[in-house]
Amino acid sequence: MAVFEEPIAVGKIRKIIRDIFFDNVKLSYGCTEPVAVGLSVAIAKDYLKGELNRIEILMDRNTYKNGLEVGIPGTHLHGFEIAAALAYLIGKSEFGLEVFKNVTGEIVSKAYEMKDKVSVKYENEIRLHIKTKVVGDNEVLVEITDSHDNVSRIVVDGNEILNTQSSVNFKKEGAKAVTLNEIFDYVQKPDEDVLELVRKATEYNIEISEIGLNTDGNFGRVLDGIPRYVAAGVDQRMSGALLPVMTVAGSGNQGISCIVPVSKVADDLGVSQEKKEKAVLLSILVTIYVKAYTGTLTPICGAGSIASAGASAGIVFLNDGSYEQIKNAINNVLATLFGMTCDGAKRSCSLKASIGTQMALNSAKLALNGTNIPCGNGFAARDVEETIRRLEVLTNSLGNFDEDVINFIGHC
């Protein structure tokens, strides 16, 4: 009986890992907070009758914080008002997180003219929650919760036509159900369609980084080494480039930060394509795993401190490190950079991401040489799994940060 049960258990774990991968790796144009607002408007438009009268948007404070100063794709503008107007004009619900992919200069001008029809407010809620009301001859309410494309409720003229409880919190609990060792085992023999998405993710995120390095004024142009590629990609994205980026755990910056450095190290080492893909996959899965504990939107910089932990794991893998060395690399990053805060999405995120990349490289080197931050140094635990669980507690303790930092964003 025991021999029969083990393959079932392994198969179940593999399915969980596969599911959380596809739930958390998605293509997007632009910062995912304005994108989520745009998606809610595009969905509401499907049910609207008559001419648009107004759009009212109420969101959680973290979404609001992240969208205040970030560039909107295809424009030189920022703000939720212009994002909502663009989505109303050219957004389609079936585009999902690619809702801004058809932005043109002509549409931007029209959106700017109608942005006064949009009102934006935030409430002191921690989880990702967007409530968009679109009013014409009728009234449509669309709610997005927990994940940027998780439409949880649609109400038309008071009639509820969708109300689902299948929130991403379920999926986060699924991610917590696995262990790092099980993730490492999966990476040794991943599914082919998972690797296919890894290849696409690498292609998209390397492309925006290389375009950034060829763009005047991009922060990455003045940096050195592998961190320059990460900074270039993030800066290009935050500046509003109309380019696709593969997001990881709800963030394109995290996608760039956990994919690009591993890909570049793989190229420098001259490893096989198979090994490169597995290393990138490991980086992605570790990033998703840690984010399951900290949450999608937090006071902590995901690109600088979380995705870099994933990158360090991938880099150790490329250097034939053991499971223990991979864990130590993750631990080294988290115990060092977790205090890097998120003060909203904007161009300087690229510099935070570049610092995280340098730390990923250093942590991998330390781990490969037998060094792990000792238990009891700060919040570092004996086992990295416990360190990660402690991150959840520490993240929740920073509740006032987001509320306070909103008062400073955009004010010199």
Q: Overall 3D geometry?
A: globular
- The residue fraction in helices comes out at 55-70%
Quantity of strands, as a count = 8
Measured between the Cα atoms of the first and last residue, the distance is 68 Å
Mean pLDDT: 94
* Count of separate structural domains: 2
What is the chain-wise order of helices and strands? HEHEHHHEEEEEHHHHEHHHHHHH
Task: Compile the SSE list and pairings.
Elements: H1 2-24, E1 25-29, H2 32-45, E2 54-60, H3 61-67, H4 80-90, H5 105-114, E3 118-123, E4 129-135, E5 139-145, E6 151-156, E7 159-163, H6 168-176, H7 180-188, H8 192-213, H9 225-238, E8 244-248, H10 252-269, H11 273-294, H12 302-318, H13 323-337, H14 349-368, H15 384-396, H16 399-406
Parallel strand pairs: 2-3
Antiparallel strand pairs: 1-8, 2-4, 4-5, 5-6, 6-7
Give a structural overview.
The protein is α+β, with helices and mostly antiparallel strands. It folds into 2 domains: 27-167, 60s Ribosomal Protein L30, Chain: A (2-Layer Sandwich), CATH 3.30.1330; 178-406, 2-methylcitrate dehydratase PrpD, CATH 1.10.4100.10. It contains 16 helices and 8 strands. It has a 6-stranded mixed beta sheet. A two-stranded antiparallel ribbon has the order 1-8. A hairpin with a 5-residue loop joins β5 and β6 (151-156). α4 (80-90) packs across α5 and α8 (192-213) packs across α10 (252-269). The radius of gyration is 21 Å and the shape is globular. It starts with a helix and ends in a 6-residue tail after the last helix.
